Amino acid sequence: PQVGDFQEFGRGLDVNAAGDLLLCGVRPALVGEDAWVRWLPPVSDGWTVPWVYEVANKPFEERTKDCAFIEDRIVVVGEVFGKHDEFDPWKLSRGSVVEFGTNGAKLSEAVATDEPALQSGYEAVASDDDGGYVAVGYTCDNNVTPCSPTGGVIKWFSLGGALVGEQAITTALTLWDVAASPTGEVIVAAQASKMQQGLLVQAWKPGVGDPVWTYQGAPSTLQMATGLALNLYGSIYVGGYYLDGDVLAAGVVKLHPN
Fold first, then answer.
1. pLDDT tens, 96-145?
2. How many CB atoms sit inside 10 A of residue 214's CB?
3. Phi, psi (5° rounding) for residue 195?
């Protein structure tokens, strides 16, 4: 077993075909939190490296949310929190993507700008099954801290952290998970802006302005989708929770898209 420091928090996990284990998370720092990523192969000790975002020696919090093996590298996503713009103290949270080699060396980093939304963050990452990857999360266009999500977002990246596509999801507050479909779409699990049908699942292709298909849960007091997985036969399993009156329960939906 591997036991981390009691102040470390794990946020993401992945396993590749070789059996290598990937972990990522945060730990306390002098200012807020610092990010870390850990690679554990089956036959050696592996490594643990931090990721510190620095601009003009300003302090930032690196809030890791997820990580994945993508092609020949490791991708970590989350958000960087701090004073990005000295003339505007409200633009604090920005989505971040960092790539590492399997030797622990940082290969690239990409931090979102304040366009088209003032603030943002990524909650999950997955391969797009086309040589790149996709990150999903939220945007917020309010000058407040903390900034409550006002819209979902999907961003497609090529290796090297270059943004190649972006899709705003106006019917969602936050996209919590993502996976690639064998038919070429990315499937997202979301919290819809309409709470009574908040368990939202959609399939998207880059460059297409509308979802390929959409599923929303039967109405209840409150609901949201928080995770998903696909099996080898194309079935989609979506996890989340429902509040119906005074009853709060976890649930799983199995979908069979055509």
1. 999 999 999 999 999 998 877 888 999 999 999 899 999 999 998 877 77
2. 13
3. -60, -35
Question: In whole angstroms, what is the distance from residue 37 CA to residue 24 CA?
Answer: 4
3-class DSSP assignment, residue 131: coil
Residue 224 CA to residue 228 CA, distance in Å, equals 12
Distance CA 78, CA 98 (A): 9
The residue type at 163: L
How far apart CA 99 and CA 91 sit, in angstroms, is: 24
Structure tokens given for 124: 């999950």
Residue 159's contacts (CB-CB under 8 Å, 6 or more residues apart) are 70, 71, 73, 99, 131, 132
- Give the side-chain half-sphere CA count within 13 A for 19: 4
pLDDT on residue 33 = 67
Reduced DSSP (H G I as helix, E B as strand, rest coil) percent helix, strand, coil of the chain, to 5: 0, 60, 40
* Cα 148 to Cα 133: distance, rounded to the nearest angstrom: 26
Residue 167 burial by CB count (10 A; 0-12/13-18/19+): exposed, middle or buried?
buried
Tell me the pTM.
0.91
Name residue 32's amino acid. Answer: G
